[in-house]
Request: fold
Amino acid sequence: MLRKGALALFVIVAMHAPWRVMVLGAEVLTMAPSRVRTDNQTDRYWDALSLESRLVALNYSVAYLRDLKIDGQEVYGYTSPNDHAIVVEAGLSWNARLAVLAHEAGHTLQPGWASTRQGEAFAETVAMLISHDGYREHARYLAQHRMDTLFMMLVEWPGMYHAASILEDR
Reply:
């Protein structure tokens, strides 16, 4: 029953959302949830610095620290909206930093009404739109929140594209 509901929600998203969000939604439906692998390449150095400077212009501080943990769990990054601060794991390659920074940047513009899982769906979809690094790893992460992801894609896809355009300064 849950699978039919997810498929029906995807069809509705597909009818309304632009193709990049639609493709990510299809990947989310087919992907098994698992730990996200990071890209070890460094060719996105300037893109990461550009996004960082955009966040600073939006009044957020960005720091790179090692061995990040939240409640004892290792994380690649986190956002503290009250402090206007983003922290990213310093041990990541520049390509991975860009993807994580894009995700955390998405949190800065997510709707205030979104639950934690919906906020993750919003932020990760924004990260996919900004980082242009394929769909698979983003879908792997979002697969753990399928229904919330498909719901957010249906309801907030214009906001996701708008957030990406603000963060890319388009």
Observations:
- Residues 2-167 form one domain.
